[in-house]
Write a structure and sequence with these properties.
The complex is a heterodimer. Chain A is an alpha+beta fold. In chain A, 22% of the residues lie in helices and 37% in strands. In chain A, a hairpin with a 6-residue loop joins β36 and β37. Chain A is flat, with a radius of gyration of 37 Å. Chain B contains 21 helices and five strands. Chain B is globular and about 85 Å long. Chain B starts with 23 loop residues before the first helix and ends in a 9-residue tail after the last strand. The chains are: A alpha+beta, B mainly alpha. At the A-B interface, α3, α4, α6, α7 and α9 of A face α1, α2, α4, α5 and α6 of B.
Chain lengths: 614, 551
């Protein structure tokens, strides 16, 4: 092969000399353009991960930043290789962080296609700017004009160690990404049994001799190749039932019903259900059975567990019960309270108490409870499944609506019940955490604090009884952040945010009171109690709401209370109940706070007034 | 003189870079004038790349360890939380205005979701496999930052090696949290800040480095605005320290004035951007801002009541198999703190007593950053006692301290002439320390009680349990390894004592059994229970109803 001498005295094959070397001199920018295009193409074609992952990582973490760095600093000699690498990473992170932010504000959104195209355009545009700036004499290309491909190869030869590290790194990444294929985990084919509604539970565990019982059996193959299985049910070593053999491909699901008929009487019998593969028991389930000698009716209470109707009625013992989906308890009075009411001067109050379980039961059942302080009676109001919440009950005497939070922790919802009709309504709203429910004086609107997760700030939501759908409370166009909302008589919301009280109405912020917290507005919306200051220096303030529901500049009454909590103004605004240092107090203006004994045991969570004072 | 590359500003008493130095020489020249080994080092791009390659190799080995050790199945709280935010961004096609957003910043979710769009891998593979390996990219900005400060390739290499041996730093950059890119942006910011000090007489280059700083700062704040606010505090303290030095010495030297000016401008600029970010660009970040009011309240409680606050170090007695193991693995941390304080104090004393002239601006910046990070560390200890931010501010602030402390130690080390014995000693130290650092950073299950991994079979079993229960309490082991499944369905997961959990169903696997034995928590007798699920490794047992009302 004929060769010509390169400028550096190195032989260059003629075919290499024919490549437009002056263009290749911008090999770094060409790499940016080609690398981005290849990564985008690989993503669009859903290419093999070994190709797509390294290209994608380069296109996201290095190439856009390198393009921008080259546009800012067109002279390649401005930095060393490690410095270019650092710049490429730092600026790529910047571009990749903010491009999705910008895309999120556009009609296209932060979807895969706009992101890939957008990042590609940014990389190409910056590379083009870098090329133009270099062409305008702001800098020179990184490689020598003569040499092209061969100079790149020479560079690689000169830095064999660097090249080896790069290749080793790529190999390591590839190994790590395909580790599941190199060392496959043992197959974990799933074998399970379910109840009649495809859930765990409601198994036929109370059966009779001769009675046909059914189990729903399932298999999900996690084998690496197709395999044949069959299912056998045994008791005491004897085969009670079996299912015909079947074949499953990897990832395939198989479900069937297994029917069996117990033959021996006895409690807590063991029914072994085995998944057999290659002639041996491969997976193994156990059902515990109580087999009775004769058929008999199922317990009535079991039937009640499937009752879904909700109702309120007076039970035979004269107490109030609320039906709940799942099961229903119309509980009689189970605990007497001393009469007259323990709240001095506030007789006739009815409290709604969130009561925890006793702790002795294996599953603590939790419920809302009603306490009539005059009659000295107390009722279980609702009953729920273990693990469910029913908290923050608030009652609106004017509309007869009771609202409370229900659901699982972190997946809570708001329910409102009409005590007149017994109908309950789930308020439509996002799943998350709720608290601080508050009815307006007319009992028409309900406000609350909401956040999607524990890491998010509380924000205010509200709903109307006629269209029970939660909507964010806004100030201007921004959602109102805050908690502890309370309605005022003129339809405003007082709430706490960042250590101050604020009042908003008609999407406008009306007033703000720094250093105040824990607002409680009386049911008629004319008085407000709040805490001024913090910790041991806190003062409990009770004052009148004037025009714009603005608190009077000089509080009507104030008293020093160390670290007060659970501030609640009596419905007529004539007293404030609060907790401090573990005890409850009732404070009437002009008098000293007086310790009271609320009928709340150690497991109470929160409470509220339910009726006006008598 | 090369076109477009002007000579750097000449520091007092030091020689400028040779005018004929080209390429990297021109780039490295200014840093050389304050180098402790400036006489012996010939800057060469190839050597830089070679040294960097060795460091990359070292870090790749370290980063590959958790990936290979746990088969890409490392799970820990922050990764799970960030994974949820990334998934939320992918589902909502937005990084703002979605329900489940990270209130401190959107950038990590944005970068991660973009990577997933390009690579097609799952969130878990990204966090557990690709990210730990991609963290090796941090070596480049770290190297540049240290080299800019120390002006020495040997010093920069030593600083990077020391940083790679810090378990607290490795812990935050190797796991799934946002800190890997946060640290990357921080290195670039600090490098741009230090590098801008050399271009005081070249407005064009100076301006470009200022732009570079703010581009990196915008990323830093967008990843985590709380760290952004902390950075503002650090630069403020450093600026105050510089002003104090000027006052002490009576006359502020040119270097000092330059540093004060830069620190003042970056403090102001970053603060303005942070405020804009919190109140206009990313409203959920207001939540972070409000934490400072919580700090005030908790401070009042600590000061005015008998509340003793919390101690983040109480957990070491349960997290590790013994306190001795913890203290042994934390050796590099304690060595770093002790040595860096001694070196810092020794040089600071000499400079303040006017025995020697003030160092060049980058070294001065290093000493000031160290001072402010120590103050921040002390405040973090106090905040932890107050229980702010989950009581882990010490853990959060230590990596920042380590990033600067290693440079302080490296500064002193490069004063010592190199020898074969020293090289051998360094190699021995690196070998021994890297092992303990990796063991601690990855919470090695052989010596830790807090396991952070699961298996595919366990994941499959947990997902099945989640899908086939409605409103049930499910027990998933005592260590909380499977807690990622909690919150993704209508069930409540318990990871406490099995007998006290009141659960309807119990998960069992060999790992759950071993973990219970390690924590000395007796397992529930599953003999009377239904065994409703079996995948060869994990079994699920269901308690028989005790009343007609249970399901």
């Amino acid at each position: 092969m004929s060769v010509e001498r390169g400028g550096a005295g190195v032989s260059t094959p003629r075919w290499r000399a024919s490549i437009p070397l002056d263009r290749l001199a911008h090999w770094d920018l060409i790499c940016v353009v080609l690398g981005t295009a290849l990564a985008g193409g690989a993503a669009a074609a859903h290419a093999w991960a070994a190709l797509r992952v390294p290209l994608g990582a380069l296109a996201v973490l290095l190439l856009p930043g390198y393009g921008l760095a080259a546009a800012l600093f067109p002279d390649p000699r401005e930095f060393t290789i490690p410095e270019w690498l650092a710049l490429a990473l730092g600026l790529s992170l910047c571009i990749t962080a903010w491009l999705p932010y910008v895309l999120s504000q556009t009609p296209w959104g932060f979807d895969a296609a706009p992101t890939i195209i957008g990042l590609g355009l940014v990389s190409w545009a910056t590379a083009a700017v870098a090329y133009l700036r270099r062409a305008a004499g702001h800098g020179q290309a990184p490689a020598q004009p003569r040499g092209g491909v061969s100079s790149a190869l020479r560079l690689a030869r000169r830095h064999r160690f660097v090249a080896a590290v790069c290749l080793g790194g790529i190999a390591l990444v590839g190994l790590a990404l395909t580790i599941d294929r190199v060392v496959p985990p043992p197959p974990w084919t799933e074998f399970y049994m379910l109840g009649p509604d495809d859930l765990v539970g409601d198994y036929p565990e109370h059966v009779h001799v001769g009675e046909v019982a059914t189990l729903r059996i399932g298999v999900v193959s996690r084998e690496t190749e197709a395999a044949r299985f069959h299912v056998v049910a045994r008791t005491g070593g004897a085969v009670l039932a079996q299912l015909p053999e079947f074949e499953l491909k990897p990832g395939a699901l198989w479900q069937s019903e297994l029917t069996f008929t117990p033959t021996d009487v006895g409690e807590n019998q063991r029914l072994d259900v085995a998944l057999v593969k290659d002639g041996r028991d491969y997976r193994h389930l156990v059902l515990r059975l109580d087999v009775a000698p004769e058929p008999r009716e199922r317990p009535a209470a079991t039937t009640a567990t499937s009752q879904s109707a909700r109702e309120i009625r007076v039970t035979s013992s004269g107490s109030l019960g609320l039906g709940r989906s799942g099961f229903w308890i119309g509980s009689p009075t189970f605990e007497a309270l001393p009469a007259p009411a323990p709240l001095p001067g506030l007789s006739g109050l009815l409290l709604i108490v969130r009561q925890g379980g006793t702790g002795a039961a294996p599953r603590a059942v939790k419920a809302l409870e009603l306490v009539d302080l005059v009659a000295g009676k107390r009722w279980r109001f609702t009953t729920t499944f273990p693990g469910e919440l029913e908290v923050c009950p608030v009652y609106a005497p004017t509309s007869g609506l009771l609202a409370y939070i229900t659901g699982k922790a972190g997946d809570e919802h708001v329910t409102q019940v009409s005590l007149a009709s017994g109908l309950d309504t789930n308020v439509e709203g996002p799943s998350g955490l709720y608290r601080d429910l508050a009815w307006d004086p007319a009992g028409e609107r309900l406000a609350m604090a909401y956040r999607p997760g524990t890491a998010q700030p509380w924000r205010l939501m509200a709903t109307d009884r006629n269209s029970p759908r939660l909507a964010p409370v806004t100030i201007g166009s921004a959602p109102a952040l805050g908690e502890s909302p309370q309605w005022t008589a003129d339809g405003g919301l007082v709430f706490e945010v960042s250590g101050s009280l604020r009042m908003a109405r008609d999407e406008k912020l009306i007033w703000s009171l720094p250093g105040a917290s824990q607002p409680s507005v009386a049911a008629d919306g004319k008085k407000i109690a709040y805490v001024q200051g913090q910790g041991a220096a806190a003062r409990l303030v009770l004052t009148t709401l004037q025009g714009d529901s603005r608190p009077t500049p000089q509080p009507d009454e104030a008293t020093a209370v160390p670290a007060p909590t659970f501030i609640t103004v009596a419905p007529d605004g004539g007293a404030v109940i609060y907790q401090s240092q573990g005890r409850f107090f009732a404070w009437k203006p002009g008098q000293k706070p007086e310790a009271i004994d609320l009928p709340l045991d150690a497991t109470w969570l929160n409470w509220s007034f339910a009726t006006a004072a008598g | 003189m090369i076109s477009g590359v002007s000579a750097p500003r000449t520091a007092r008493g030091m020689s400028a870079a040779p005018a004929g130095a080209v390429g990297s020489g021109a780039a490295l020249g200014p840093a050389v004038w304050h180098s402790p080994e400036r006489s012996g080092e010939v800057p060469a791009q190839g050597n830089d790349a070679t040294v960097l390659s060795v460091l990359v190799l070292l870090f790749l080995l370290i980063a590959a360890y958790p990936v290979l050790r746990f088969g890409g199945r490392l799970i820990e709280g922050d990764a799970l939380e960030q994974g949820a935010f990334i998934s939320s961004a992918l589902r909502a096609h937005s990084v703002v205005g979605v329900d489940d957003v990270y209130p401190n910043g959107f950038a990590y979710a944005a970068i991660s979701a973009t990577l997933i769009d390009f690579t097609g891998i799952s969130v878990r593979t990204l966090l557990n496999v690709l990210y730990p390996l991609a963290t090796v990219l941090l070596i480049a900005p770290a190297w540049c930052f240290f080299k800019e400060l120390l002006g020495s390739r040997r010093g920069a290499a030593l600083a990077v090696v020391l940083l790679c041996l810090q378990p607290e730093f490795l812990f935050v950059v190797l796991r799934g949290s946002h800190e890997r890119w946060l640290r990357g942006a921080m290195f670039v910011m600090l490098w741009a800040l230090a590098r801008s000090l050399r271009w005081g007489n070249d407005p064009r280059r100076f301006g470009l480095h200022v732009v570079l700083f703010y581009l990196a700062a915008s990323t830093f704040v967008a990843v985590n605005v709380f760290f952004g606010l902390s950075f503002i505090m650090v630069t403020s303290l450093a600026m105050l320290g510089a002003v104090g030095i000027g006052w002490w010495r009576g006359r502020a030297a040119g270097e000092l004035r330059l540093v004060v000016g830069r620190l003042a401008s970056v403090t102001l600029g970053t603060a303005v951007f942070a405020v804009a970010f919190i109140f206009f660009l990313y409203p959920p970040a207001v939540h972070s801002f409000e934490r400072f009011t919580t700090l005030a309240q908790k401070t009042a409680v600590m000061a005015l009541t008998t509340d003793t606050g919390s101690s983040p170090y109480q957990v070491i007695f349960t997290t590790w198999i013994s306190p001795q193991v913890y203290f042994m693995l934390s050796g590099p941390d304690y060595a770093l703190m002790t040595c860096s304080v001694i070196v810092w104090a020794w040089y600071a004393w000499r400079w303040l007593r006017r025995h020697t002239a003030l160092p060049a601006a980058p070294v001065l910046l290093l000493w000031l950053l160290y001072f402010s990070l120590v103050v921040q560390g002390a405040l973090a200890m106090y905040a932890d006692r107050a229980g702010l931010l989950g009581g882990n501010l010490e853990h959060r602030s230590f990596p920042s301290f380590a990033m600067v402390a290693v440079a302080v130690i490296a500064y002193a080390c490069v004063q010592i002439p190199p020898s074969r014995w020293m090289a051998a000693g360094v190699c021995l130290f690196v070998g021994a320390t890297s092992l303990s650092a990796v063991l601690k950073a990855t919470v090695e299950p052989g010596i830790s009680n807090q396991w952070v991994f699961d298996t595919a079979a366990e994941e499959g079993g947990a997902l099945w349990a989640q899908q086939h229960h409605r409103g049930a309490v499910i027990w998933g082991g005592v260590g909380g390894r499977l807690r990622w499944v909690n919150g993704s369905g209508a069930n409540t997961w318990k990871f406490s004592h099995p007998k006290a959990s009141g659960a309807a169903s119990y998960l069992r696997s060999p790992l759950i059994d071993i973990e219970s034995m390690r924590l000395d928590i007796p397992l529930l007798d599953v003999h009377p229970l239904h065994r409703v699920y079996d995948n060869g490794e994990m079994q699920i047992y269901h308690r028989r109803p005790e009343t007609p009302y249970e399901r």
